[in-house]
Amino acid sequence: MKAIVTVTLKPGVLDPQGRAIESALGGLGFAGVNGVRAGKIFELDLADGTPREAVEDMARKLLANGVIENFKVELP
Amino acid sequence: MKAAVIVFPGSNCDRDLADAIAKVGGTAPTMVWHRETELPEGLDLIAIPGGFSYGDYLRSGAMAAQSPVMRAVVAAASEGRAVLGICNGFQILTESGLLPGALMRNAGLDFVCRDVPLLVENNQSIFTSRYSAGEAITIPVAHHDGNYVADATTLDRIEGEGRVALRYAAPVNGSARNIAGLLNDAGNVLGMMPHPERVIEPEQGGTDGRRLFEAVMMALA
Predict the structure, then answer these.
(1) Do A67 and B108 touch (CB under 8 A)?
(2) Complex-level ipTM beyond the 0.95 threshold
(3) Angstrom distance (rounded) from CA B73 to CA A44
């Protein structure tokens, strides 16, 4: 089974990379880009039946840094 | 002084750090590879060097924080042994939970590599006792992820507890409250982005880092 873990910066944490991407989109002529926040997506290939709690534990212990990031787990 | 320098794949300041410890402390440290599960016995100081451990994969310091040797380092720190993390070492200490907060990409996105003026905020620690409180010193930085971030409650707490050991005299990388070096609550763990091991002899262009190693040696040897 495939699980998807999406890691995003917490609201309020400054995202200089997102800002640079936003500015580059403006430079390419895309109008109306009001903000960009950069994040990460992890596709995990897991043994069937792996419980959601185990994936959340992986996210908490390694994939995300709880000081600055939130995560979302999607299971099939 | 019995010291160890932890070496990860991608560490690149390990030999400079070992050299500084040997020159100031008089005894060469033991180099300990990241796969070791135990540290040498009777260590006074565990030093975690700068570099790009594990290629900065995932987040700077994140993979190193999970390596076997770091479990031993965390255990030693909780027993009160002195731990000094410099640059990537500081990132590893925050990722392993020995220090609060996180080090994010520099606010200006650029890799910053230059001498920076610092202020010694707390000279009561085993690492900073050879400086005067409020003293201005110059130590080089070389990092991409030195932007210290923590929530306001944490920042107020560490400031209130005198745990900000070093502060940038002017903004360098976007760090909250210009924090450059941070102590743990017991005072036996210091993480700092500047590289004191690069300024211990006049030939290196400065000597302001030397007293940090002298202080540790005086406190622990």
Answers:
(1) no
(2) no
(3) 30
